Amino acid sequence: MCSEPHRTIAPRSGAAFTLDRGQRLTVIDPMGEQVADLLAFNRHDTAEVISSGRTLDYASRIYLTTGDPLYSNRSNVLLRIVEDTVGRHDFLLTPCSAETFRIIYGDTDPHRGCFGNLAAALAPYGILPDAIPVAFNCFMNVPVDAATGALTVAAPLSRAGDHVTFEAATDLVVGLTACSALQSNNGSFKPIHYVISG
Amino acid sequence: MCSEPHRTIAPRSGAAFTLDRGQRLTVIDPMGEQVADLLAFNRHDTAEVISSGRTLDYASRIYLTTGDPLYSNRSNVLLRIVEDTVGRHDFLLTPCSAETFRIIYGDTDPHRGCFGNLAAALAPYGILPDAIPVAFNCFMNVPVDAATGALTVAAPLSRAGDHVTFEAATDLVVGLTACSALQSNNGSFKPIHYVISG
Fold first, then answer.
1. What are the chain A neighbours of B97 within 8 Å (beta carbons)?
2. In the prediction, which pLDDT does A104 show?
């Protein structure tokens, strides 16, 4: 997979692209400890989108890895995880946004975050900001305290070169970022690489 | 609150209604161990809806209770929890649906579930099924194993007469159910009562 030419998402930015049914998308953390928020929409009807609520319900798990499908809001499988060298990703939290930075970080002139980057990248596909749900946040490490329910955004477990590979179960529009939140990426902003194959 | 006349949602059904800013909605479990899925939309622009991903991120907790706001997909507060006699609700899972019953329970002729009940109740407000996100599932008890991420749908902690009260931070359309999934309600289907005050 890594012999194929990769594309690069610069730090604190995002991209959108299509995947055909059967194609694979490999998301690579080239330097380690960098999160990539992923969204996937049915390319032929973008009102259908990945759903954390359906996926976690059917998996009976909040942490997904190799073998797990990502279901849509219509309970169809949009993607399957087919390789995963990390095994810790988040599917609870929405992409960071200007409001995230204002509310959690207290920023007065906040960056537009993964939310703004995804909204801009997905706009040419006719996808509106309000339609952006909880993303599958590759490499994001969100431990949950079972007793209190407290969640923490901890350093990703990914090391340089780690990757997670998805196979498209239908034709998709995909949004992908190099995450813009300091805490999610252990204090620094790094690029994300990705490869489309098949 | 309980001296005011309540309305009843019959077992395995749902309702939708409006709340004005400042009004309170009390959701009562009259028999105990019965879940009620709640959705709230900005009445003046129903593309704005409660967001589990934003709310859990800002709360840094998956279990919400008295004092916690429910944020929208635009990071505005739509509701605040102002009273809660139980302290255990779910905000991870989507409403049960025909697909839930097929995929998880193996039903061949499935009930339409809370999803179908909400879709039918919200249709007169112009809200489409695809716009139904993760609901705030009153009284639903979903413990998470911190090490593996495994989640279980356990018996609700609510006893007869327990309630949770929300205050509307803006004008809302609300959808509310008496949940239709056996496992969520410890094996039987019961009604839900609610009171609107203020």
1. 75
2. 87
